[in-house]
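Exercise 7. Predict the joint structure of the components listed below.
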Amino acid sequence: MISAKSGDPSESGKSDVEPPLGLLAELTHRCPLRCPYCSNPLELEKRDTELSTDEWRRVLSEAAGLGVLQVHLSGGEPTRRPDLANLVEHCRGVGLYSNLITAGVAFAAGLLERLAEAGLDHVQLSVQAPEPALNDLVTGRPGSLGEKLSTAQAVRDLDLPLTINFVVHRLTIERLPRMIELAVDLGARRLEVAHAQYHGWALENRQALIPTRDQVMAAVDIVDRARESYRGRLVIDSVVPDYYARYPKPCMGGWARNSLNITPSGRALPCHAAETIPGVEFPSVRSEDLKSIWYGSPLFQMYRGVDWLPDRCRGCDRREIDWGGCRCQALAITGNAGETDPACEKSPWHDELLSIAQRESTASTEFLYRSFSR
Amino acid sequence: MSEISSSCAPKLPRGVRLQDDKVRGGWCLLGPERVFQLDDVAVEILSRCDGVRTLEAIEADLAETFDVNVADMSDDVREFLVGMAEKGMVQL
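Solution:
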């Protein structure tokens, strides 16, 4: 009788274009960490191309007017922007829920206090591994676990809600039980167990990162049991890996269906890896308002809904569950962004995806660290 | 469902808030990576969860507002609150 339904329109089965719920605001690509699974593109945008404070404030106002409810302040490392508290305050002023997605290192003195005062709603802190040596190997920054733990404590001291984000891959996936305990010890209310998604830097490093099937199955089981034993104390969200799946995920809830991404220089994208798609013009918030981009730009219409689906997928009864899956993965594996997502068992490339996973999960583990100068 | 006490004072934890959704209409509950679109009854319940009023007082107030007996609605209210608490959206 009493209903609080998840706002995700991909669950509603409607096919009209709805306003977006979420905005991923990549404020900068600068970051003190060099994680080899970073979701940023290989061509990182330089500081002098970043949107100004006034431009971001305008974009945030446009987002609220368009129907966005939550803004994820991300990067790179968003705390590199000296105007972060100003932008958080603006979010609060226009009714947007603000979520800081941070690495939690090298914070300026008093920064968290200023953000809390400005009305920050939530902090999502990445931790790469529960032990210093492994964490620091992944981040490429000595001492970074200690910095992260101090940040977690400071977040809790300010009574801000904390989510720990743990990206799992071959080197860290078996540390999951200890990571769950650490998240509880740190007072996190939520833990994201995010399997590395093989785009951008992670695709470059796939050989070093992709877990074995046994590792993935064990992790799924650990998450299931932890959800039960920490019920009511810790919410665990898990992003499942595609390479061993039978069906694709509804990537981003469906292309241009409920969220969008804005890069540091103001490109608006349906997902953070969309810039890999060739032959498309990427709309910019510098020259167009967000509403016309969302409803009118060719990029956002390109794979929206189900009309664009390849013949193989048109009659599928899962077409409004996964909305065709991930376009960037289709591109990376098949060379064609309009193809069936190879994570689907009905894709002719599905076996190849599985054999890549099986082959590479026993390969070398040398990282190509993220950097601006390639 | 019955593990909730009449004397508890439910509240929205920090990081969870009600927001007027001007574009779609109605109210929603926002939390970490969560958006819930609420029906009218859910809004009436959650807007009373201030950490001061007890569940018993909230139920009495709701019963008066909707002109029903507490006994007829109590199970639904408690089931709703326990469900939201498990999602981390309410603190009991």
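Discussion. The longest helix of chain A spans residues 213-229.
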